[in-house]
Specification:
Number of helices: 7
Structural class: alpha/beta
Number of strands: 9
Shape: globular
Radius of gyration: 18 Å
Helix content: 25-40%
Strand order of the largest sheet: 5-6-7-3-8-9
Order of helices and strands: EEEHEEHHHEHEEEHH
Length: 232
């Protein structure tokens, strides 16, 4: 199973995007500044936007899900129960997973943005996909909410998971890092070595690199472990 970006290109009036690379099973991070083209790349990988040049080649990929940044785009039910049912999921299980204070009959659009985001992601992460694309999954979430979602993402096994984000604080277990720089997709490589060339690395990670202590991955536990080693 893999997704190949073969001389992929997208053009807008004020910027362009090019991408080459192979996404294999595991959890991939695509980082980049706001407006760098992360959402456009996600749309092309999902097959929802045709590239201006090149191609997206999917091998062994049958089930695809693109989770948009704004959870309202996914809502199809009037109530929390109807929304969960639209994913063929039991409301009780989803409500517990999302950790929201709600009953099944509550109007789904009466949830706060953070609650709706957690509900949506709980639905998405309860199902199996060959290719799961998460566009800014941490937006609208507070730190506990981000940590909860990261734990859920880290538990995924099999398939290709790609996270498109400008997040700088909290991450799940990451296997491979990519970044968008100057309109091009840069392959930083597998973890842990990927952080060495990662230009969008958070300040704390850069400090650890300078100290010669490379975190094994980007979870809070990995960062704390690497930071503790600097005091040894």
């Amino acid at each position: 199973m893999k997704v190949v970006l073969d001389h992929l290109a997208a053009r807008h009036p004020f910027w362009s995007l090019t991408a080459n690379g192979v996404f294999s099973p595991g959890i991939h991070l695509v980082s980049g500044d706001v407006g760098s083209g992360k959402s456009t790349l996600a749309l092309m990988m999902a097959g929802l936007r045709a590239p201006d040049n090149g191609a997206v080649i999917r091998e062994g990929v049958n089930r695809i899900m693109l989770s948009f940044q704004f959870p309202e785009f996914h809502v199809t039910g009037l109530s929390v129960a109807e929304e969960c049912a639209s994913w063929n999921l039991e409301p009780d299980a989803v409500i517990r997973s999302a950790d929201i204070d709600s009953d099944e009959e509550r109007p789904v659009l009466s949830l706060s943005r953070g609650e709706l985001k957690r509900l949506h992601l709980a639905c998405v992460l309860s199902l199996d996909y060959d290719l799961l694309l998460l566009d800014e999954p941490f937006s609208a979430l507070d730190c506990p909410g981000k940590e909860q979602v990261c734990r859920q993402i880290s538990k995924r096994s099999g398939g290709i998971t790609v996270i498109f984000t400008h997040e700088q604080s909290i991450f799940p277990q990451i296997d491979h890092i990519w970044e968008l720089i100057g309109g091009g997709l840069v392959d930083c490589g597998d973890m842990p070595g990927a952080v060495m060339s990662w230009q969008h690395a958070p300040p704390l990670v850069k400090k650890l690199i300078c100290a010669g202590r490379i975190p094994r991955s980007l979870t809070n536990d990995d960062i704390r472990e690497a930071a503790c080693r600097t005091r040894g």
